[in-house]
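Saturday, quiet lab. Running sequence design on the structure tokens for the scaffold JK sent over.
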């Protein structure tokens, strides 16, 4: 599903964030991306949804070369990839329901279908009863559940998460990770950058460790491998 071939990323300021990465991620995998701060994890992940373009090399998602994707095709790509951020990025003036529905409204899904999908997805993340609330009325963990619901409401085949538990307490982090695990069990590929050592070592999955812009380790049932 995702293939990187000799990928490099040099930012305009001269920093080489990704320094020659080759990797293949198959449909249905769950991959943790770990490594020290500044190692290139976010850059690696951002290139998968075309937030950043590689300076050299190819990134293929289901055979489409993202580096060569025309700007007008980017929205279509993004519709097929769910993205979850550390800081949630919810729209503050919209209700929980509206934040999740938004992703379907922009693709002009039928209103009846929108309602069904949004309520089903809110149920999956345990927030159907808070559909009318505003994000500010929710806890951090609940806000992250809304952002997960928003990322999967389109039923994407791939969900990418950059430090999704970075702002959450340990108990809430476990709840959030269990939701990602459930999403993966249903067949969605999950790629997640994380510093959560305990979770990586307990809910074991493939671990890709990035150091100085290169893959330092790639293990099928890996460990976090660093001090937190
Ligand atoms: P990580 O997610 O592992 O902390 P990043 O991918 O954010 O690593 O950063 C890798 C390197 O690239 C760091 O040296 C960082 O300062 C640099 N970097 C990240 N984003 C940019 C940017 N937009 N412009 C310039 N340098 C950047």
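Result came back. Writing it out in full:
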């Amino acid at each position: 599903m995702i293939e990187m071939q000799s990928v490099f990323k040099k930012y305009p300021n001269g920093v080489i964030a990704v320094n020659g990465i080759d990797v293949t991620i198959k449909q249905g995998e769950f991959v943790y991306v770990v490594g020290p701060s500044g190692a290139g994890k976010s850059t690696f992940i951002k290139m998968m949804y075309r937030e950043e373009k590689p300076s050299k090399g190819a990134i293929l998602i289901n055979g489409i070369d993202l580096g060569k994707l025309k700007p007008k095709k980017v929205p279509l790509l993004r519709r097929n990839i769910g993205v979850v951020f550390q800081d949630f990025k919810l729209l503050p003036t919209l209700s929980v329901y509206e934040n999740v529905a938004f992703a379907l409204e922009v693709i002009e899904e039928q209103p009846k279908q929108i309602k069904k999908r949004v309520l089903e997805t809110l149920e999956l993340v345990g927030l159907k009863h808070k559909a009318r609330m505003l994000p500010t009325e929710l806890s951090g963990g609940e806000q992250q559940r809304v952002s997960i619901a928003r990322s999967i409401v389109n039923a994407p085949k791939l969900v990418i998460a950059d430090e999704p538990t970075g702002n959450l307490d340990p108990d809430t982090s476990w709840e959030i990770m269990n939701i990602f695990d459930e999403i993966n069990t249903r067949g969605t590929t999950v790629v997640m950058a994380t510093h959560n050592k305990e979770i990586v070592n307990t809910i074991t999955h493939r671990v890709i460790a990035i150091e100085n812009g290169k893959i330092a380790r790639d293990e099928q049932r890996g460990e976090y491998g660093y001090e937190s």
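Notes for JK: The pocket of adenosine-5'-diphosphate is lined by residues 11, 13, 15, 17, 35, 37-43 (CB under 6 Å). Residues 10 and 16 are 4 Å apart (CA to CA). Ask whether to fix the surface positions before the next round.
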